[in-house]
Hints:
Number of strands: 7
Structural class: alpha+beta
Order of helices and strands: HHEEEEEEE
Distance between the termini: 106 Å
CATH architecture of the largest domain: Sandwich
Shape: elongated
Amino acid sequence: MAVVRWEPFRDLLTLQERMNRMFNESYRGHGGSEDDWSLGGSWAPAVDIYEHEGNIVLTAELPGVDPKDVDVRVENNVLTLRGERKWNTDVQRESYHRVERAYGSFTRSFTLPNVVDTTNIKADFKDGMLRLVLPKREEAKPKQISINVTR
């Protein structure tokens, strides 16, 4: 029988490596390498949607994205955001030590409620934030109904 040296942390490190690989692959949406994902894969910007002053407001985080590379469309009551964050060509790829931000194209689609007036949507882009104001139709806004008192 051969004598095997027991290394208590070897299995723990192997488990950690497997967990990191599993998390990274599921988070990135494919099994490619880190370089493949960060330099040309797809990603999804974070979005907040809320109501404010009778409008629905959508804000999307798009740091590093040129507003000219963003396309906003409404078709069949579906709002679609498309764009691309381009790789910085000023620095050679080999010079990077770590790349954590995602680059490449993105698409986000949202089904709009019927109360949205799609003809009057306004879009602003400031400091890497896209803000869309989706006004509600007048007939969808709450109305105060006066009560007549008769005697």
